[in-house]
Write a structure and sequence with these properties.
Elements lengths: L4 E6 L6 H4 L9 E18 L6 E21 L3 H8 L5 E10 L2 E10 L10 H13 L4 H8 L9 H15 L1
Antiparallel strand pairs: 1-3, 2-3, 4-5
Helix pairs in contact: 3-4, 3-5
């Protein structure tokens, strides 16, 4: 890693490289590999101001862990990712220590500030998270857990179709 880049731990939709590498986010992002955040669990309770659905979050939970992807990103794109993630408006940036291979590595990630345990993700959002997990070879039992999360259909079919097309475009 260079002085002009930083490490980011993605655990939700940003695990999916085509989602994270959009021009308005982090086109320079390069996957370093799968990583594990111990002492936390994945929740889908972050309130989305954009569409009202549930988005991924990490919550402290001893004896649990969250799997995700470690990315190296150009420092010049940090403000873009902060904006895309709603830093200060739904997520706070935190520093975490993740297990990458056999090494403990410091990385930044985001943790929700506005949560509601009743929220559920839209099916397209859950599909983005699953696509990222599959893309980076996360274990089948972990992916099965993601697939078992209850999700709602988005009433905005154009939005649903747009995001599903991004996933399908990679599979094609």
């Amino acid at each position: 890693m260079s002085a002009d880049s930083y490490l980011y731990f993605a655990y939700g939709s940003n695990m999916f490289t085509p989602w994270l590498c959009q021009p308005a986010r982090c086109p320079s992002a390069r996957a370093v590999g799968a990583a594990e955040l111990r002492g936390h669990e994945l929740r889908w309770h972050k309130h989305s101001k954009k569409d009202g659905s549930g988005k991924c979050d990490i919550s402290v939970a001893p004896n649990a862990s969250v799997l995700g992807v470690l990315y190296e990103i150009a420092a010049s794109e940090k403000a873009s990712l902060d904006r895309a993630e709603g830093k200060g408006f739904g997520y706070d940036e935190i520093e975490v220590e993740v297990l990458s291979g056999t090494n403990l590595v410091r990385a930044v990630t985001y943790q929700a500030t506005n949560t509601d345990p009743a929220l559920r993700p839209y099916t397209w959002y859950r599909a983005l998270v699953i696509a990222g997990a599959k893309e980076h070879g996360l274990p089948a039992p972990y992916i099965a857990g993601l697939e078992s999360v209850p999700a709602d259909e988005d009433s905005d079919r154009a939005r649903h179709d747009q995001y599903m097309a991004l996933i399908e475009g990679v599979r094609a």
